[in-house]
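Posting this for the archive.
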Amino acid sequence: VQLQASGGGLVQAGGSLRLSCAASGRTSSNYGMGWFRQAPGKEREFVAHIAWSGSPTTYVESVKGRFTISRDNAKNTVYLQMNSLKPEDTAVYYCAWSRNTWGSDEVDEYLYWGQGTQVTVSS
């Protein structure tokens, strides 16, 4: 399985971005998907995950009400809509393919990772 993330960029605080992650290869199994992020000098942090069916979804507390994870299984693509962005959201964002149907907030529960897309929020 290969994951290709896109949609990052530079945005002012309060702005929005939509990240996409397209899966290719052996995608026939049901799988949860997640988004993580890593800021310079920090560990990779869970952001959101979504089950194969599209529900349930789970978010880290700091993005609740601002970010929305969704998926289109016909396109093998997962999205992360990010609104009301803050400078502290600046990081490289990674999508990941879970070992299970539900997804997880644990890095070790993911088998495959995308290459990352940079999100920079200026104040």
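The two ends are 37 Å apart (CA to CA). The mean pLDDT is 96.
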